[in-house]
C-alpha cells in the first residue's frame, strides 16, 4: 500500500508537539527542585536544635513526589505552549 504513512499519526503528533523534549526538561526541573527542597529541609533539621518532626527518609519520599509532580506540570505546560505555537503557525 503506497498511501500508508511511514509513522503512525499519533507518533507524528507527539513529535510535532516535542513531547519527548518537554518531558526531559520537565524531569530535569522537577529533580532540581526536589533536590533543592530536600537539601534545604534536611539541613534545617540538622540545624542548631534537633527537630524530631521528620526523618531524612520521609523527606526523600516527599522529594520524589515533588519531583514527579513538578515534572508533570512543567512537561504539560511546555506541551501546551508547543501546541499553541503550532496552531498559530499554520
UniProtKB/TrEMBL annotation:
Transmembrane residue ranges: 23-46, 58-84
Tagged with keyword Membrane: yes
InterPro entries the record matches: DUF7536
Keywords: Membrane, Transmembrane, Transmembrane helix
Keyword hit for Transmembrane: yes
Top-level taxonomic group: Archaea
The name this protein goes by in its record: Uncharacterized protein
Organism name: Halococcus hamelinensis 100A6
Lineage of the organism: Archaea, Methanobacteriati, Methanobacteriota, Stenosarchaea group, Halobacteria
Amino acid at each position: 500500500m503506497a498511501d500508508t504513512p511511514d509513522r503512525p499519526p499519533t507518533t507524528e503528533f507527539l513529535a510535532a508537539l516535542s513531547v519527548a523534549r518537554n518531558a526531559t526538561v520537565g524531569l530535569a526541573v522537577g529533580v532540581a527542585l526536589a533536590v533543592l527542597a530536600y537539601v534545604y529541609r534536611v539541613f534545617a533539621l540538622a540545624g542548631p536544635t534537633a527537630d524530631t518532626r521528620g526523618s531524612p527518609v520521609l523527606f526523600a519520599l516527599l522529594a520524589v513526589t515533588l519531583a514527579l509532580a513538578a515534572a508533570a506540570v512543567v512537561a504539560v505546560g511546555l506541551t501546551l505552549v508547543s501546541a499553541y505555537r503550532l496552531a498559530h503557525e499554520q
